[in-house]
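Progress report, Aim 2. The chain analyzed during this reporting quarter is listed below.
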Amino acid sequence: MAVRVLLVDDDERWRKTCRILLRVAGDLEIAGEAENGREGCDMARSLKPDVVVMDISMPVMDGRKALKELTACMPDLPVVMLSMHCEPSYIRGCQASGARGYVLKDRAAEDLVDVIRNAVARGPFLSPGSC
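Predicted structure tokens for the chain:
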């Protein structure tokens, strides 16, 4: 049975990239897509995906605020943060707020699928290429 993934990113190009990576993986499928954190939280509650992949920098509600909301209302839902931010404060902050994974956008092609699988299995938090 495929792992159902909710993609939350305001950049259509990144969502397209993620769709391709997940399709190639074979065991991951898209449950839905959202363009901001508010929409992502609403869709997570209604779609009940197995995991959420969410950007940090988004309009309406950024990924860090959405992460806090999701972990408060759905504490068992794995959330993987997808970001261009390599600063340790971003990574530590997301981990402290309940994220189960963190992938740098420039490493997504190499690491995203493995980090999603690890998040669902409660494995390692960071992608191998993280800072």
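The mean pLDDT is 91. Residues 47 and 98 are 20 Å apart (CA to CA). These observations will guide the mutagenesis work planned for the next reporting period.
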